[in-house]
Description:
Helix content is 34%, strand content 23%. It has six helices and ten strands, in the order H-E-H-E-E-H-E-E-H-E-E-H-E-H-E-E. The strands form three sheets. The chain has a six-stranded mixed β-sheet with strand order 2-1-5-6-10-9, sandwiched between helices. A two-stranded parallel ribbon has the order 3-4. The N and C termini lie far apart (45 Å). The relative contact order is 0.15. The structure holds S-adenosylmethionine (SAM). This is DUF938 domain-containing protein.
Amino acid sequence: MAPDKLFSQACENNKQPILERIRDTFTSPGTILEIGSGTGQHAVHFASALPHIIWQPSDRPGASGHCLGWISESALANIRPPLELDVASASWPVDSVDGAFSANTAHIMAWEEVQAMFAGLAKRMSSGAPFCLYGPFSYGGKHTSDSNRQFDRHLRLQASHMGIRDMDELLKLAEQVGFRLESDHEMPANNRLLVWRKL
Ligand SMILES: C[S@@+](CC[C@H](N)C(=O)[O-])C[C@H]1O[C@@H](n2cnc3c(N)ncnc32)[C@H](O)[C@@H]1O
């Protein structure tokens, strides 16, 4: 029996605007590691539009199979089976990647996991490799909209380790592990697409 396709309306809404940005960044052939793939809708949309890329989905153990429905239906040759990857784990199932993508993960992960994600990628990426991070972010402690402020409050009430991350903190973290911010794009629904480059 084919695995169920899980559905996220947010992914349906944001996948094309994200693609329009990342296609200018993921221009060279290579393997892109996606962290926290969720339903797999992003993986299929991006791999189908970027045939020069090998898309490598991943998610935490227990969640890594959630993307299988969309991936197996797509039958795309340039999507690899999902890896079990918890960014906080000391051993990642990949030694090197040509680039990375992650959507809506930084506010779900604990801050220590966000640190582990940046550090783990920095260790596995060569100089010049890109990391595209999509989601809501705040600036100088200020939210960019009332809806983001409410969302942040909702997250923190749900679990104290979650919350919208601030750019000042991300910039400090990136500098510590060896990434620089190349661009910060405004996206629909008060989200941003951050493009980091490994130094
Ligand atoms: C809000 S969902 C986003 C899913 C998908 N990227 C999207 O945009 O719809 C957050 C994702 O982050 C993953 N995640 C949370 N903590 C993680 C960790 N420590 N390592 C890897 N993935 C993690 C979750 O399993 C989940 O798939």
